[in-house]
Structures are given as C-alpha cells and as structure tokens.
C-alpha cells in the first residue's frame, strides 16, 4: 500500500505545528493529529496566558507606582475574572490565526487521540477511526505537570493549568517549586496582592541561571512580600477547612491554595511508543540521536518529550529541523539542516525583574574565560523605567571563552528579555567582542548595555569604570 502522507504528526503543540507548517511549505503532504486544540501547552495553558497574567500584574504594579512618576492614580479592586477574559481573548485570537494558517498551507488536522504503530509497511498513527500512514512520523506529545502524588483537586491543590483558570484570587497561596513556573506565579500573584509562600527543595531558586542574578531576583521578590523558603522539600499536602496545609521538612505552612510547580513529565506512556520500537529513558523521555531520530525507523521526536530545556522556541526549532530533514531525505530540500544545540537556545523568566540568558555561565565557560558586568545603573533607559526609590536596576554579564568568542549573555532587570535575541545572535554566530564593537546601538535603549559590554571586553570601555 502506498503511503497516504509524506508526514504524520502526533501532537499539535509548538513542535508539532511548527513541523507541519515548515513541511507543508516544502511541499510535503502532512496530517497532524491532536486530541485537543491546535497550539498545545504554550498557546492554551503556558507561555501566552501566563504572560498575559504577568502583564496584568505589571499594569497593577505600574499603577501603584504612578504617583512616584507624578501621575495621580488610585488602585481599585483586582478582577481576576476580567484578567482571565483578557488572557482568553489573546489566546483565542492567536488560536484562530494558527488554525487559519494550517488550513491555508493545506495541513490536514485530525481532532482525535492517537498512538504510534510501526509495521513492515512503515510508521503510522492510529486514531479511533483511521490509520494514518506516512513515510515518516513525528511524535510531539509534549509534557504534563508533575503532581508528586498529591491529590490535585483543582480548587485547593492546583497545577498551573488550574491556576490560569482562577476567577477569584486567594489572599494566601503556597507555591511549591522555585523553578520557572513557581517564580513566575510567585511574582505575578505578589503583584496582584496575594500573600505568597514559596517552597523550594534545593538551596536556590532557578538552578542553572547566574547565581548573582538569581540573588537580585530573590531580593526583589522578598521586597514585594514573597516568603521564600529554600531547602524546604514539600512531602505532603492535606486539605483543611480554610484551604490546604503543606509539610516541608520540619515546617508546616497553611494557605488558601497550593500551586504545584515541580517540573513537567514527558507524555510518552500509553501511546504505543515502546511497542513500536521507540526507546524511552528511565525518566520517560524519548531517546533520540543528534537528528531527533528515535530508535524506530522513520520515527522522530521533538519538543518537551526530548530531554533538555522545555521551551516553546526549542519546540519550534526541533519541528523545523525535522521537517527539513524529512524533506531532504525525500529529495525535496537541497540541504541537510543543522541540528539544534540546546546551549544556543535563549531562556527568559518573565518575573519582575526578568531574568534572561543564553549560552553558558562564566563558571561553565572553562579555563581562560572572562566576563564583564555592566550595571544598568549606568543605562539611561533602565533609569527611566525605574520608579524613583526603587533600589536595584539590574546587570548584564557577557562571557567570553579563552578563544575570544562570546559564549554567554546573562541579564537581570526590568524588560531585559528584549536583550536576549541579540545575545542569541552573538553566541550563535560565534562573534567576538572585537567583531561587533563597531555595531551602533540606539540611545537611550537597554540594548546599549550589550554595546558597553562588547566595548569593555574588546579593551575599549566607554561608560564602564575600568
Ligand atoms: C505555565 C507554563 C508557562 C510556560 N511559559 C513558557 C514561556 O514563556 N516560554 C517558553 O518558551 N515556554 C514556556 N512554557 C513551555 C512550553 O509551553 C512548552 O515547552 C511547549 O509547549 C512544548 O511544546 P511541545 O510541542 O513539545 O508540547 P505541547 O505544547 O505540550 O503539545 C503537545 C500536544 O500533544 C497533544 N497530545 C498528547 N498526547 C496525545 C495523544 N495521545 N493523541 C493526540 N494528541 C496528543 C496534546 O493535546 C498537546 O496539544 C511554559 C509552560 C507552562 C506549563
Ligand atoms: N518563561 C519560560 O520560558 C517558562 C515558563 C514556565 C515554564 N517553562 C518550562 O516549563 C518547565 C517546567 O517548569 P517548572 O517550574 O514546573 O519546573 P522546573 O524543573 O523548572 O522547577 C521545578 C522546581 O521544583 C522543585 N521541587 C521539586 N519537588 C519539590 C518538592 N517536593 N518541594 C519543593 N520543591 C520541589 C525543584 O527543585 C525545582 O527547582 C520548565 O522546564 C520550563 O522550561 C518555561
């Protein structure tokens, strides 16, 4: 039997739909199967709604500071239902756009639960009503919140899925986990007037990020009232009359609700992967080679179920890579695509202040590496954004390896997420500070921090004290 499609995709999240769009552009026939709406976690339960909630929280914070800028304003009540409606509006607009785009590119979208099947005829995705055969299959079923075995009721004990659906905010909340989700929710809830206790099992927030920058973020969260308890592994949670009580070491903490933000586990069981010859790691991730090829012939995996950072833009990059790889193998794309390197992928924590980074820290950059710190107290734009009386402006650190290449950029401060795309260019293009010292940055922008760091590393500092 001849293949019905060139490519069949299981999961229409960031990785799956990016693969579908790119493959269709390259002339491949594509079927994409998802049991939920196209767009996946990022669009419906992740990046987009959390950033809308964070933006609403920023509006409230800005209004509360308005008098320091000479603008009279009084804070009214916070209407969580209205914030949710605003976030839903953003999501549904983007969802409509994505649905239209997939249709216009000719991608066949099937709304059904699917599983992988591999036979002598090749790979296929089975749905209740059909078998979708293809020359190649991409599995991109993503990840779901770790629940730690706690009894999630969606009212007192929540995951981020539930937290984004709240129509009233609690007065008190416990956030379990000091990773990205925990820190973003602690930040936004604190700005919306919730009294937050954050429990983190290890001795630091956000492992992997510049320790000094994490300290700046921590001080700022504490200044806004977040009670941060490190070395506090939560072991149990029980519902009480007033909400929930959590045990963490010798501590017991009570609040109206508990958000569990303790990582996300790959969605890889019960969908025929191992039966089809795909190897899973002990953590349940799909084992792939450098080309995102699984142990099963012509079956690829992409996105959160592949070990590494769980980020939407990594999913896009994976999806695009797989589409081009398959098209190349089918003779429809002239060149072999370049595999995605996790180290080149920028990361942003959208809390207040933000943390943004790409590449490696100074500690990880190896012998002979050096770095420069540019403090945003010297940056005009950062000073304009800062309300009078606020203490910390933030800092940008640029890291250079012994061979002269820029291998890391790390920043903490208001709106520093806007810097990191340039950081990704510098790191991804293996630029040296000398290469880019002549590139002119507009004044007054936060981006001048990068020019200052380049100049300093190239031995010609301007506003940095030598
Ligand atoms: C609260 C939160 C905030 C986040 N914020 C950011 C952010 O700001 N920036 C960022 O880069 N990343 C963020 N992320 C991470 C980002 O959402 C994920 O990295 C991204 O969605 C992963 O894409 P994916 O395609 O691998 O999986 P997903 O987006 O999870 O898509 C998987 C799809 O597979 C479908 N599926 C699963 N099993 C089956 C089956 N058997 N049959 C049919 N369909 C199936 C699911 O319905 C889903 O639509 C956030 C995540 C969360 C939870
Ligand atoms: N801005 C963004 O890019 C963004 C935003 C949200 C989520 N995400 C992605 O979603 C993924 C999941 O985020 P996350 O924050 O849930 O996971 P995470 O792995 O980043 O952090 C989980 C934290 O929970 C802690 N923890 C685990 N068990 C605990 C316990 N019993 N008690 C106390 N602490 C405990 C861990 O030590 C860890 O610090 C991340 O990998 C991230 O890439 C990205």
TrEMBL record:
Which cofactors are reported in the record for this sequence? FAD
Q: Which residues bind NAD(+)?
A: 177-184, 200, 263
What disulfide bonds does the UniProt entry report for this chain?
A: 42-47
Q: Which GO terms describe its biological process?
A: 2-oxoglutarate metabolic process
Return the cofactor note field. Answer: Binds 1 FAD per subunit.
List, from the UniProt record, the residues annotated as the active site of this protein.
443
- The identity of this protein, by name, is Dihydrolipoyl dehydrogenase
Protein source organism: Tessaracoccus flavus
